[in-house]
Specification:
five-stranded parallel β-sheet; seven-stranded mixed β-sheet; globular; about 35% helix; Aldehyde Dehydrogenase, Chain A, domain 1; about 20% strand; binds 2-aminohexanedioic acid; alpha/beta; Aldehyde Dehydrogenase, Chain A, domain 2; 22 strands; 14 helices
Length: about 500
């Protein structure tokens, strides 16, 4: 496992590692050094997706009736294997997509946490037992699996996000086909390798790498795929939802964000500074939860901005395998170009002022990769595109607010609603913000990133379609409710009609 320098990743279908029917193989390069090939992957087609769905459908017949605590035992094993292999998989991930090692270790850890959380559900999967209105009658609700799940996942959390979907799907009794982002096939391969080592029966987990349209599109359209769970952009999510709508397929979407951190004048400013540095420039801003707007209360705006710029200039960029590096590269050339286009849009809009960054970062070894200098734009107002649209890079828009209501109104003024943060020492202001901020996640005195797996993850407005991953709320994505009534009276009892009880 994972010690080789160039790793050939295969598809995993029906318990076998296989090449794509296309015979085509793509190259996986290190975004910190484009000359380094870290691996190859299968450029699969719709036919490969069909094979994987057929394998998953076949496995479903016996997996769904295996008792949930037994299904969970496999997940506990996967969790233990991921724990053993954490360092190797984290290193692979850094080489594959650029995040610094501390963060890729965190990514694998989030997968481990999800394995144990989902495994625990094997002995819960709670329904409700409620009293019945008629005598000698029992009623309760229970969760049932749905079938084959198509899991389409992004490159920014290449192990954690697949596990958010895969492990709950499995513990509920579903089987799955995973289609990871083309930029991160190796981390998905590593995850599936860990599942295989845990002894999961053939066909329960399947992996097909390749492009979004050919493979992902086929999963979305396949009549035997009963659930689609997708994390990615709102534009793609919308298309997937339209397609699923035609066949009434269940679809859970976790989409974009335009997250803001508010800093009020009574806040601990040093703490707020640490928060925004981590929230905006951690993962080089490539998180759905990244802080892309900093809303500063007018009296402290200049002071905080000055403090921030001083610190941003000291951030060390480079290859994430170097433990002293703080910010890695953009995942790809096109991602870096997209980020830069936004900065240009920002500067061409009214009044926005470039405070630092705003260019490709090419110092020393960084010249070989897709690095972008941490960027701050000041004088941003709520209507500008850089204040409203997701950028997914190390770009922070600074916006001034007159008071708390103004700050919250600015924060809410985007199409998205994933994560949010407020720094204040005033408990009344904090609770006011918790009540009025339109977002799935609100942090008080913490940055917009850092969700833990035991609380629901997801957002409002264009961030999704009402589902929540993680926590026990994820079970609603992967199960159907069944209400069960058992009448042990031995006679016909009519609900709502036989209101006079005989006994
Ligand atoms: C994402 O941003 O795509 O809360 C996922 C966090 C991580 C998960 C982020 N635990 O930042």
């Amino acid at each position: 496992m994972s010690t080789v320098q160039v790793k050939e990743t295969l598809n995993y279908i029906g318990g076998k590692w296989t090449q794509s029917r296309t015979g085509r193989v793509g190259e996986n390069r290190n975004p910190a050094d484009d000359t380094e090939v870290v691996g190859t992957f299968q450029e699969s087609s719709a036919q490969d997706a069909d094979d994987a769905v057929a394998a998953a459908k076949k496995a479903y017949a016996s997996w769904r009736v295996l008792p949930a605590p037994k299904r969970a035992e496999y997940l506990f094993k996967v969790g233990a294997i991921l724990t053993e292999r954490k360092e190797a998989y984290a290193r692979d991930m850094t080489r594959e997509m650029g995040k610094i090692l501390a963060e890729t270790r965190g990514d694998v850890q989030e997968g481990i946490d999800t394995a144990f959380l989902s495994g625990g559900e094997g002995r819960r999967l709670f329904g409700d037992k409620v009293p019945c209105e008629l005598p000698n009658k029992s009623g309760w609700s229970e969760r049932h699996p749905i079938g084959v799940c198509g899991l389409i996942t992004p490159w920014n959390f290449p192990m954690a996000i697949p596990t958010w979907k895969l492990f709950p799907a499995l513990v509920c009794g579903n089987t799955a086909v995973l289609k990871p982002a083309s930029d991160t096939p190796m981390s998905a391969f590593n995850l599936v390798e860990a599942c295989e080592a845990a002894g999961l029966p053939p066909g329960v987990v399947n992996l097909v790498t390749g492009d979004g349209v050919g493979v992902g599109g086929r999963l979305v359209e396949h009549p035997d795929v009963r659930v689609i769970s997708f994390t990615g952009s709102s534009a793609v999510g919308r298309r997937i939802a339209e397609s699923c709508g035609k066949s009434l397929k269940r679809v859970a979407l976790e989409l974009g964000g335009k997250n803001a951190q508010i800093v009020m004048d009574d806040a601990d400013l040093d703490l707020a500074l640490e928060g925004v540095l981590w929230g905006a420039f951690g993962t080089a801003g490539q998180r759905c939860t990244a802080t892309s707007r900093l809303i500063l209360h007018k009296p402290i705006k200049k002071k905080v901005l000055d403090m921030l710029v001083d610190r941003v200039k000291t951030l060390k960029l480079g290859n994430g395998l170097d433990e002293t590096v703080q910010v890695g590269p953009m995942v790809s050339k096109s991602q870096r170009e997209g980020v830069h286009r936004y900065v240009e849009i920002g500067m061409s809009e009214d009044r926005a002022r470039l405070v630092c960054g705003g260019e490709f970062y090419t110092e020393g070894e960084c010249e070989k990769g897709w690095f972008y200098a941490p960027t701050i734009l000041d004088g941003v107002t709520r209507n500008m595109r850089i204040a409203r649209e997701e950028i997914f890079g190390p770009v922070l828009a600074v916006i001034e607010a007159n008071d708390l209501d103004d700050a919250i109104s600015i924060l809410n003024d985007t199409p998205y609603g994933l994560s949010s943060s407020i720094y204040t020492r005033d408990v009344n202001q904090a609770f006011h913000a918790i009540r009025d901020i339109e977002a799935g996640i609100t942090y008080v005195n913490g940055p917009t990133i850092g969700a833990e797996v035991q609380l629901p993850f997801g957002g409002v407005k264009d961030t999704g379609n009402g589902h929540r991953e993680a926590s026990h709320t994820v079970l609603d994505i992967f199960t159907e409710w069944k209400s069960v009534y058992v009448d042990y009276s031995g006679r016909l009892q009519r609900a709502q009609i036989d209101t006079e009880s005989a006994e």
